[in-house]
Amino acid sequence: MRIIAGTAKGVRLAPVPRGVRPVSDMAREGLFSSIASDVPGAAVLDLYAGTGALGIEALSRGAERAAFVDRSRPALTTIRRNLDRTALAERGAVIASAVTAFVTRHDRSAGPFDLVVADPPYEAPEAEVDAVLAELGSGWLPEHGWTVVLTRPVRGSMPVIPVHWHVARRLEYGDTLVLVYREV
What we know:
Blueprint: H1 25-34, E1 43-47, H2 53-60, E2 65-70, H3 73-85, E3 92-96, H4 99-105, E4 115-118, H5 126-136, E5 147-153, E6 165-173, E7 176-183
Parallel strand pairs: 1-2, 1-4, 2-3, 4-5
Antiparallel strand pairs: 5-7, 6-7
Helix pairs in contact: 4-5
């Protein structure tokens, strides 16, 4: 895996920890092409961060700062290594927490986040994903101009989203479905 564009273009990322399924380079490239205007200057929240590739790609493309949330120690170590490899560590905060605990209990003064990327494990229960999206819609996003990106398996069901959200883009890459949400 590598960073596709921006200040860290071409930097190879640390090996993927066991049990982590990162978004492919092709899917990441397609996603960031479709949200390119949302990234510069954005505050980014990378949930289920894994390798940190999505948040680091955003930082490389001009996002102001990024917070990376994951509960796996190997993933957290990999995110820190990748932030160091790309020389973006000063703009990234790595948070050791289960995502559901973070969005329900963490101090929301860290936000709001203009861009949220969530890449939950395919086996994550639908109820968990729905609950995370509901929490994001209640205080983690600015009033206007936000984007939430969610990855799911193509063969899965569509998540329940807050009433003021809509699917702005639906992209498929192999077995990965990338959903881009915006305000209605």
